[in-house]
Write a structure and sequence with these properties.
Radius of gyration of chain B: 21 Å
CATH class of the largest domain in chain B: Alpha Beta
Oligomer: heterodimer
Strand order of the largest sheet of chain B: 6-7-8-3-9-10-12-11
Structural class of chain A: mainly alpha
CATH topology of chain A: MetI-like fold
Number of strands of chain A: 0
Strand content of chain B: 15-25%
Order of helices and strands of chain A: HHHHHHHHHHHHH
Radius of gyration of chain A: 24 Å
Number of helices of chain B: 12
CATH architecture of the largest domain in chain B: 3-Layer(aba) Sandwich
Number of helices of chain A: 13
CATH topology of the largest domain in chain B: Rossmann fold
CATH class of chain A: Mainly Alpha
CATH superfamily of chain A: MetI-like
Order of helices and strands of chain B: HEEEHEEHEHHHHEHEHEEHHEEH
CATH superfamily of the largest domain in chain B: P-loop containing nucleotide triphosphate hydrolases
Largest interface: A-B, 24 and 34 residues
Chain lengths: 342, 341
């Protein structure tokens, strides 16, 4: 069965990738100036207290031993204690991750909703005025730095025009209990549709900022591929069979064109989690980005490692999902997974 | 049997739909706009195909054979077409795009060169064969039954089972049968086969041509076979049209064309076919190459390569003239003969 082969192969590969990633980040972090023991002991600690903290954290052992001890704890799902917040790293990440996922997923939805029809229209009317306009704006938006765009829309749309809320995840008037960690869902549970809508409005601007940058790339890849597919003979054949235009696009053109887009989205997913760092801090969203920024700021090695590993896990998972989607889409990929050659 | 010749100006009663030719092309010109300017791909082509007739259209690449096929189905989006194309009595040049897609598949269908490229790699064989019926509102089960039936008829064994397979799981010959099934399922009156055997190996070529002949006879289906391979034309076609540089230069009964080709180009083509019953020292060819559509010679486009070239050939485009055999030819040689006799 292709799905078992594919998943087991990719999971094994993913574990190796993550261990390598952990090693890289761990050893680099030991080279970073700053003493975690001093941070852990607090600002006014005596030399004895610092030494105690060092022993307590295992920092007196050789680096290689420290790494294996870390890996051993990792196997039990223990990412250690955050040195700055004195709470388990897993807990902090568990709090932060849903916010980031919500942001990134919302961006991807926005990207697809805009890029898919836009690319289809541009490709069908290739060389026309609409195509030119769309291509120009894609080049333009891809060149805008995220943080600048974020500040700009925050200033104009949130500040001057006051169409959308400036920042935060939800308005203060709603008290939201944490159930899933996803603000859209939690707000709806706690405060009904009205609070859910409020959370949606808060999410709209940051996710749109993220979507603009990555969506341009997606649009261009889709447009190129749709043009390529339109020239293929089976499209002419489908037309000669009497398939009307809309059915042609939905059944023949798009399914054959979205392959590269799925791959790109998989790669972008990891990059978007990275870019979310900036967007989250500008829009004051309590996500992975804020968590990572904090960790770096306070030389919190465990928190930093945890955040990077989780990001790595997201990237590995995203690429697995990409491969699964491609296999579902294309019978030839499934055949190759089954060792059927061709 | 013989229609009464004594009723002028009126169609014979009782057979109005039958009387309409499967295809009636008159004065068809096709141009495309390129960065280098407008290029004429097809120049004043007229052609008639009777219901059930098998016509072969032959010519070198670039002669406009495929352009003609695509313009009949209006598949060339960049084509600027003038002239008249009537498919089973319907003028297709005036149809809206929606009317045109209804006509495609059910009145006129097409089979393409590369059977793998002609199939959507992501859909099952069954879905694709049933599609011409599905887009016309036939229910899924009924369309699938019809698809299985036609695949079986065209020689796909265990059709109902193999409909769940994907194109990459089929062999070249089987794929071409699938492509043919897609073209025939909505029961068109005219089938255009554009080089349907070029991508196949010789044994499979034969099978596909035989199959085409068979379905044409059984269904009284008019077939236009577009090919550059005269070898497959002989046993298949009733009539042959020879194309050169965007024009039809001869149109004749298949047997007569092979026995006594009138146009010098047709003569060259037929002499160039190697024959198994003739010992030959070397392959005969036509000297020179066919002209690029953007740079066609003046007058008769064949004149630079023609061994019988006259002064008039460089200046004047020869008109189509009837041959004593019943066909037509576009060559100044025959204007002279006509004047002389």
């Amino acid at each position: 069965m292709w799905i078992v082969r594919l998943v087991s192969r990719r999971v094994a590969l993913g574990v190796i990738t993550l261990i390598a990633l952990a090693a890289a980040v761990f050893f680099i972090s030991t080279l970073v100036p700053g003493d975690p023991a001093r941070v852990a002991a607090g600002e006014n600690a005596t030399a004895d207290q610092i030494a105690a903290a060092r022993e307590n954290l295992g920092l007196d052992k050789p680096v290689i031993i420290q790494f294996f001890l870390y890996l051993g704890r990792l196997l039990h799902g223990d990412l250690g204690m955050s040195i700055s917040t004195h709470s388990p790293v897993t807990e902090g990440l568990f709090d932060a991750l849903p916010t980031t996922f919500e942001l990134v997923l919302m961006s991807i939805i926005l990207m697809l909703v805009v890029a898919l029809p836009a690319a289809t229209i541009a490709a069908l009317r290739r060389g026309g005025a609409g195509d030119q306009a769309l291509r120009t704006s894609a080049v333009f938006t891809a060149g805008i730095p995220t943080f600048w765009l974020a500040l700009l829309v925050q200033f104009f749309i949130g500040g001057k025009l006051q169409i959308l809320p400036l920042s935060g995840a939800v308005s203060r008037q709603y008290s939201v209990d944490r159930v899933t960690g996803f603000m859209l869902i939690d707000a709806t549970i706690s405060g009904g549709a009205e609070a859910g809508w409020d959370a949606f409005l808060h999410l709209l601007m940051p996710s749109a900022v993220l979507a603009v940058l990555f969506g341009a790339q997606l649009f261009r890849a889709l447009r190129t591929e749709i043009i390529r597919v339109l020239a293929r003979e089976h499209i002419a054949v489908a037309r000669s069979k009497g398939v009307p235009p809309l059915t042609l696009v939905m059944h023949h053109v798009l399914p054959n064109s979205i392959g590269p887009a799925i791959t790109i989205l998989g790669v972008q997913f990891g990059m978007m989690v990275g870019s979310a760092v900036l967007v989250e801090s500008i829009f004051a969203l309590p996500g992975l980005g804020s968590y990572l920024t904090n960790a770096v700021g306070s030389a919190d090695v465990n928190a930093l490692l945890g955040a990077v590993l989780v990001t790595g896990l997201v990237v590995v998972t995203a690429s697995l999902v990409v491969d699964l989607l491609q296999a579902v889409r294309d019978p030839r990929v499934r055949a190759a997974q089954n060792g059927g050659g061709r | 049997m013989t229609p009464d010749p004594g009723t002028p100006g009126q169609t014979a009663p009782g057979q109005p739909a039958q009387a309409a030719p499967a295809l009636d092309v008159a004065g068809l010109c096709v141009d495309v706009d390129t960065p280098a300017g407008r290029i004429r791909l097809l120049d004043d082509v007229s052609l008639t195909v009777r219901p059930g007739e098998r016509l072969a259209v032959v010519g070198e690449s670039g002669s406009g054979k495929s352009v003609m096929a695509r313009s009949i189905l209006r598949l060339g989006d960049t084509y600027r077409t003038t002239g008249s194309i009537k498919v089973a009595g319907t003028e297709v040049t005036r149809l809206s795009e929606r009317q045109m897609s209804r006509l495609r598949g059910s009145t006129v269908a097409m089979v393409f060169q590369d059977p793998l490229g002609a199939l959507n790699p992501l859909q099952t064989i069954g879905e694709q064969v049933a599609e011409p019926l599905r887009v016309r509102g036939t229910g899924r089960q009924e369309a699938e039954r019809a698809a299985a039936a036609i695949l079986e008829e065209l020689g796909v064994a265990r059709a109902a089972e193999r409909m769940k397979a994907y194109p990459h799981e089929f062999s070249g010959g089987m794929r071409q049968r699938v492509v043919l099934a897609m073209a025939l399922i909505a029961e068109p009156q005219l089938l255009i086969a554009d080089e349907p055997t070029t991508a196949l190996d010789v044994r499979v070529q034969e099978q596909v041509i035989d199959l085409l002949h068979e379905v044409s006879t059984e269904r009284n289906l008019a077939v236009i076979l577009i090919t550059h391979d005269l070898g497959i034309v002989a046993g298949f076609a009733d009539r042959v049209a020879v194309m050169y540089a965007g024009r039809k230069i001869q149109d004749d009964d298949a047997g007569r064309l092979f026995r006594e080709p009138a146009h010098p180009y047709a003569r060259g083509l037929i002499e160039a076919v190697p024959r198994i019953d003739h010992r030959i020292e070397h392959l005969v060819g036509i000297p020179g190459v066919p002209p690029h559509p953007g740079a066609r010679p003046s007058g008769c486009a064949y004149h630079p390569r023609c061994p019988f070239r006259m002064d008039i050939c460089e200046v004047e485009v020869p008109a189509e003239r009837p041959l004593p055999s019943g066909g037509t030819v576009a060559c100044h040689l025959f204007a002279l003969e006509g004047n002389a006799s």
